[in-house]
Amino acid sequence: MKKFLFITLFLFSILKAEESFERFISSSVFYNGKNREYFLVLENNEITKFFVESKDWVDENIKGYGGDINLQIYFSLDGKIQSIKVIEQYETEMYAKDVFTERYLRQYYGKNVDDEFILGKDIHSITGATISCSAVNEIIYQCVKNVNQCLIKKDIIKKISFRLSKMEVVKTIILVILFLIAIFGFVYNIKILRYIIMCVSVIFLGVMYYGGLSFNHIQNFVYLNSPHKSNIFIWSLIVLTILTTLLTGRLYCGWLCPFGAVTEFLFEIKKFFEQRYKKSLGKEIELEIVEDNTIVKFLRKYEYIYRYLKYILAAIILFSPTMIFIEPFQHMFLIYKANLVRIIYLMIVVLFCILFIRLWCRYFCPLGGFLSIIAKISLVKLRMNKNCFNCEICKTICPTNAIVEKNGKLKIIYPECILCNKCRQSCGPKNITIEKII
To answer: Which fold has domain 375-436?
Structure first.
């Protein structure tokens, strides 16, 4: 009854939409010896405008009185400024705070490369903040000039609406190969293959794609905010994750999630040095994946309650989309853009994941909660065989505590299983096998 209630609430929350999201696809172009990134904003699957970050489009390092200034500048498709947002600035608040207000920056709206951008003529400055005004003006001017010469004059923005990027195709092929190898490694229980895939995913999905799949992608689908048809990489990532979950279970979580991979690697490193330290003291090395202390006993005792947290968080995010910030994925792989609060939050999450393996995946991950629901109906599942004699090695070594004892027999709670194969490797394939459900 409880499971039915949570699933019902989760599905009901899909029907509720509170706010619209700005949807965009990123691309880049090599211009004047520099790789420059730009972002196409989509409305109803059509490109309506685009924006750039000034740090990518100025030809020199322009600093204000206090240091670096980075602006996010929105353009119409004909190259006119639509709006400006301040991403980063270190100017003295007493003198320069008005320079970065909407009221001051609005004077740039509607301007393009044909305007002069001269302080005191078509751009007014603020008394006492001349250095800041000059820096902002020069940054905006260089961005407008380069954007118009590169993207507008060469019709790159118009071409991107129907042109499929070669890089997009290459990334998608790599992604498909990763999923296929992961399925192969899971089915044939190849331990080293899992660690190789995890390492590649950290670089490919984590570093290059800023954290991999997010519940935000699922959230956008719920709000009918799907990726643009030209962005086949994101489409492929979502579709492949859902299809493999329907086929085998939470393969993405156990093999391809970059955040899960990093935290698991950190836990294994911690465990390695911990075991070396214990050996040096002549102590016996426990089989348990975490020490059998009071906290672990408490976690295991009330496991059936904590597991619902990820479903609740998923529902909360669907009702309140701004809560997506609780996901630590992008905080980790875009840490240079995160503020102090989010860095501290990330450190706390990672610390607990090092102390207790896959803690985030077990209890808090909204994406994991969504995939757990799909895993309930997966076509093939891991099963305990009848000849299992309850040695409980598999139960002890399972990183997500997905193996429990029920009525004197061990049972795999499959929605919690991340297909890491640790149980098959510790107990042997004869006692735990892959079975077809239909």
So the answer is: Alpha-Beta Plaits (3.30.70)
